[in-house]
Specification:
This is YbdD/YjiX family protein. The chain is an all-alpha fold. The chain is about 70% helix and about 0% strand. The radius of gyration is 17 Å and the shape is flat.
Length: about 70
């Protein structure tokens, strides 16, 4: 296995983990926000995650969080 093959496999694993954990969601949000209205300020990652968590917990279809 060559170094290029190892890098390709590592890149695919990285992509999969980012998709699985939801980390790439912020990147998609930034790309979407900048493409649709470049003058609008983009939320920081922390604000985005906080907003996303609040929305998920407020939606009863997403499940119940007891604590």
């Amino acid at each position: 296995m060559s170094l290029a093959d190892v890098r390709r496999v590592a890149g695919r694993i990285r992509w999969y983990v980012r998709e699985l954990t939801g980390e790439s969601t912020y990147d998609r949000y930034v790309a979407h926000a900048r493409a649709h209205d470049p003058d609008t300020p983009v939320m920081t990652r922390r604000a985005f995650e906080h907003s996303r968590t609040d929305a998920r917990e407020a939606d009863p279809r997403e499940g119940f969080r007891c604590c």
